Amino acid sequence: MTLLLMFVSLVFFIVIRMPIAMSMLLSSFLYLLLDGRFSYTIMAERVASAMDSFPFLAIPFFILAAEIMNTGGISDRIFNFAQAFVGHIQGGLGQVNVMASIIFSGMSGSSAADAAGLGAIEIKAMLKEGYDPGFSAAITAASSTIGPIFPPSIQMVLYGVMAQVSAGHLFAAGMAPGLLLGAGFMITVAIMARAGMIKAPRRPRASLKEILRATREAAACLLIPVVLLGGIFTGSFTPTEAGAVAVILALSLALIYRDLTFRDIPELLINGALASGKVAFLIAAANIFGWIVTREKLGHMAYEWIVGLGLEPWAILLLINVLFFVAGLFIEGVAILMISVPVFVPVLDKLGIHPVSFGVLVVLLNMIGFLTPPVGVGTYIAMELAGASLEEVMRPMIPLFIPLFVMALLITFWPPITLAIPKLIFGF
Fold this sequence. Notes:
Elements: H1 2-15, H2 20-35, H3 41-51, H4 58-71, H5 74-86, H6 93-105, H7 111-128, H8 133-144, H9 154-163, H10 167-194, H11 208-233, H12 239-256, H13 265-295, H14 298-309, H15 313-328, H16 333-350, H17 355-371, H18 377-386, H19 390-413, H20 416-426
Helix pairs in contact: 1-2, 2-13, 3-13, 4-7, 4-12, 4-13, 5-6, 5-11, 6-7, 6-8, 6-10, 7-8, 7-18, 8-18, 8-19, 9-16, 9-17, 10-17, 10-19, 10-20, 11-12, 13-16, 14-16, 15-17, 15-19, 16-17, 17-19
């Protein structure tokens, strides 16, 4: 009964728009208050335990790296590079938008940083060339979802900490889905342009001189994902150390390009600390919540209920797809991850569903929620940048959901799409 009251109070707090971290903290406190078996000091102990995590340190590093990249001119060079290579393809700057997001995702791992930082550059260029504000916002929001799927990824680090799974394995598992998702977006944009569904002015093919110039200007930036992923997959450094390397490389390049001065650094550090603090608070609250879920054996209860349904593992994953999609309409993705992992991971392990594959699926489903109102943070960010209404954005957005849903089904029914590369690199 006490556990039920905890979940009811959590839903109530979320419905009244209380921040997710505070909702989880208060509902956990209510449980401890009513249960009476545990000292309130357990909350302080769980907060300390949550913060005492080496993998968790990767998150503030990647947040700061994304802040530097968006401020220090790196995003501009990535966009110009992508424009030189794919700007002439059917769909024009829509294709550039996707390619730039793929490259940027190999550095930051944050969909919000992509949508707000690189997205501002992309939308400005698209509006200048006569693209509709609605489509400009739609493709910017959609392409930003590649960030947390293609490594490195902040959400995968969070999942890894919660599920006790290697972040390196998760990063490798996200490579194929991330690249295929980007290809799916590019194909969709080309079809939409050819069918006249969007206004996409054709651009002339860039000359060899323009391509070489764009490549030269972006060369150092393009080395960042190579160094990060190469270092992680060869074992040269951990994902946490990769975050620190990303900060050093991004800051060095921004200073060399003179797009950033030493006077700008304090503000970047403050912004990074504020963003990291929000995530840390959420992790601390989720750790308390997860401890209660584990103590009450909710995972075992969920397992018995699911087994009682008599479903095959693929059908269970399909059911989870639906549950996450519905939850994503109302709850922010990171919060869903924090609430669901303690419940579902023990269940999936007993059913023989690989936690690495499930981790990629969870992040992908969260990215669908990143686009879908009424929460739809990514859509609202891009909508504001483009000055478009929600209706104008959602109309061209609908076809862009197709690659996301197709990828979710592929991961559900064909796990090798996520497990082949980790097995090749790490041999697990």
